[in-house]
Amino acid sequence: MPLNAPSPFHIAGGQFKKMEPCSCDTFVALPPATVENRIIFGKNSDRLCDEVQEVVYFPAAVHDNLRGHLKCTYIEIDQVPETYAVVLSRPAWLWGAEMGANEHGVCIGNEAVWGREEVCDEEALLGMDLVRLGLERADTAEKALDVIVDLLEKYGQGGNCSEDGMAFSYHNSFLIADRKEAWILETAGKYWAAEKVQEGVRNISNQLSITTKIDREHPDMRNYAKQKGWWDGKKEFDFAATYSYIDTTKMTISPGRYCEGYKLLNKHKGNITFETMMEILRDKPSGINMEGEFLTTASMVSILPQDSNFPCIHFFTGTPDPESSIIFLFVRNKHMSPLYSTQHLICFKKLSASFPLNTALGVIDKKNQLYLRVCVHLLLFLIVQEKAKTMLENMRKLEKELFKEMESILQNKHLDVDKIVNLFPQCAKDEIQIYKLNINS
């Protein structure tokens, strides 16, 4: 294995612990690859199987006391005068987010990446902090890129990305989209390259993927690579090949999730809809819907109409396995209230399989109503298969109703505030009711 190459081993309590490869996948499809002149954004968040992920909403805010500092997951940074409203899907223990969107229709998802540049263990900004900061501080995709790279230069990236004491650190890549375009931003320490995407499809996974199409970059990125002996200064500069160990000529045909995501997007190119993106996120044969010690703990799909008269619509699961989860409809409006039914209240760890099912459900219900589904997921073997099948069928019926609701909203430029203000919490309540009815019957 080359020096500083991604390792399947991570230090836990002073011992090496073999981990399954962790991965996430983020996708974007733009016209003409989509229908109805929409941009479709999608992401699976793959994390440790016992980690709670919550969906939270923070309203726009004005910050008068700029002498104060903003506390992120590990460090404090300078605050800005104004922040935008955001909806986030985040591991409950940290400040930042795996993915999310803001009131201007900007969406961001991040991925762990490794390469030749050594990962720093010193606490700095996590990639997940940078996701939230980009959303809170930028009203376009490119401005979000500016926010992230400026913060990266000033504060750096680093720190443990696991809550259970296992040492787990990485650099980050980002897919940033808005109503007009998308940007891929990939980092190696403080160095970075960015690629603009204006049409077609693009995906990122746990590898550097920007090759020779570089639209923006760190001013010293090439000189640094030359000094390290990674690039001779003569041949065409390839970011992924230079800063990692990837043979970029085989990148889209080699086994792996980046390649599988690339193939799935291109398979549906020209006809990609919200449902298509959800099918990709639910795909298990490709490994995109991940199972094991690292698994898909939450999913997000966003519809970004290019016509600004129409609202952006976001769907979240907030719980493991998108195949057996309903994806909830979220439409931002000024009357939004906190998402209490989906927010993690007291950190709940993985249940013992020896818990009686009703007891387990009661425990979850008191701590986090939506995370009730994780209990069902972990203890599904206690439910007869026929009941599990019925439960999934009922969930799909509810989801189809949400799809109809989505199209109704997208066809109506004047939103019915009374109708949508509680739409997301009601989705959570409806799904919880499905679980309770099936479990108690």
UniProtKB/TrEMBL annotation:
Gene3D superfamilies: Penicillin V Acylase, Chain A (3.60.60.10). Keywords: Coiled coil. Residues 381-412 form a coiled coil. Pfam families: Peptidase_C69 (PF03577). GO terms for molecular function: cysteine-type exopeptidase activity; dipeptidase activity. GO terms for biological process: proteolysis. Belongs to the peptidase C69 family. Secernin subfamily. This is Secernin-3. It comes from Cnephaeus nilssonii.
